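Propose amino acids for all 141 sites.
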């Protein structure tokens, strides 16, 4: 079997189990001629267990208008907001704190994010999570 030629790689963030042909999915995939409903059905089936979080997806579009996709881990800010029980981050991070997370929660988030981060060291991953928390106005205790 010959290798298919890649026409495009598309990265979008969609709520798990809630992909619809409406924007952002339709506007991202439409110009490439992909069957949008097929993607939505496959994505929703694959992310049904993660409902309530945002799951980034990397879609590879081939020249024959077929596609494959890779699910990524949820963004760090989404995981931090869930851990702290917040609706949104601080308006003025550095000047105000809107919540806190424990060191154990930081370790759990770093472990979850490790496959998608640019490090293989857990301590470095924890530092990245702490930095994101600091920039959101969330204190690590």
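Proposal:
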């Amino acid at each position: 079997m010959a290798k298919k030629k890649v026409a495009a790689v598309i990265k979008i963030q969609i709520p798990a189990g809630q992909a619809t042909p409406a924007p952002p999915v339709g506007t991202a995939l439409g110009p490439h001629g992909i069957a949008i409903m097929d993607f939505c059905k496959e994505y929703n089936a694959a992310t049904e267990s993660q409902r309530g979080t945002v799951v980034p997806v990397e879609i590879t579009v081939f020249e024959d208008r077929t596609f494959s996709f890779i699910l990524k881990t949820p963004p760090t800010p989404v995981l931090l907001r869930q851990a702290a029980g917040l609706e949104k981050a601080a308006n003025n991070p550095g000047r105000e704190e809107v919540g806190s997370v424990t060191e154990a929660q930081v370790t759990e988030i770093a472990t979850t994010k490790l496959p998608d981060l640019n490090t293989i060291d857990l301590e470095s991953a924890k530092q990245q999570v702490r930095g994101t928390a600091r920039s959101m106005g969330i204190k690590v205790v």
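Strands lie at 6-15, 54-62, 67-71, 99-101, 138-140. The CA atoms of residues 10 and 59 lie 5 Å apart.
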